[in-house]
Design goal:
It is built from twelve helices and four strands; from the N terminus they run H-E-E-H-H-H-H-H-H-E-H-H-H-H-E-H. The protein is mainly alpha-helical. The chain has three domains: about 70 residues, no CATH class; about 100 residues, Cytochrome c-like domain (Cytochrome Bc1 Complex, Chain D, domain 2); about 90 residues, Orthogonal Bundle (Cytochrome Bc1 Complex, Chain D, domain 2), CATH 1.10.760.10. It is elongated, with a radius of gyration of 34 Å.
Amino acid sequence: MTDFYSGFWGVFIAVIVIASLIWLAYVLKSQMVLKLKKGEQAQVLHHTWDGDLQEYNNPLPGWWVGLFFLTIVFAVGYLVVYPGLVVFGNAWGWSSGGQYQKEVTKADNKYGPLYNKFLAMPVPDVAKDQEAHAMGKRLFYTYCIQCHGSDGRGAKGFPNLVNHDWMYGGSPEKIVETISGGRHGQMPAFGAAFGEEKVKDVANYVLKISGNNFNDARATRGAATFAQVCAACHGPDGHGNQDVGAPNLTHPSKVWLYGKAESTIIETITNGRNNVMPAWKDFLGDGKVHVLAGYVYSLSHSETK
């Protein structure tokens, strides 16, 4: 638990708030000592501006003092009703988290059936249903385009959902699994273990098996290192492993997550990669995840494709 969530800060805030209210009440009370009898002239203070302007020591207006006290009373009442003092709770048991959950529950009860009715349909059928497709598209545009783009073609470091190159599998079940639980793809850094030259050798071997331009001598040396180390995840032939999210390294350059340039491959081998896709099940619920999976499935299984 971080310091921000420790109990100290709740006590600290409560002490500051209570002390401030007491101090304001004291200051206001101390300024009410001066009173003028009827017909009595206010004393002129020894403050002058431009030789003519002077300041009178008049008492505070009664209406103004009343409003000031009213704000203090309102503040005390607010702290009793709402959890402004944090550690002491509040009379109504209200909390922002509880209010949020109440609104979420209300929305789920209202809109949940609209999505849940598709749960009984297989994902490929959901992808073909016009109503579900429109609903899934709206969900995709709300939660997914920030990383995968409005057309689903992704960007550097974010997978392309339109082609058939799936790191964890593109079956309906795998898509639902990915959206529900998220993914955490990690590749360890080998720069220190390999050294600069061996990194370049492995990079050229990867370029070779992917059908790109490569240095033959380096690729030959890199083959042995790849077989000893990299094949554990990417397979002996470099076709990858969807169980652990290890990419297929034999695909053409257009589907590479970070690009196929030699410098980029060297960077990946040297420093590793660490990608995270958040889990959406708790936030969206099963119904929305199912509809969203249908839309994502349709991106790579459209009639035109």
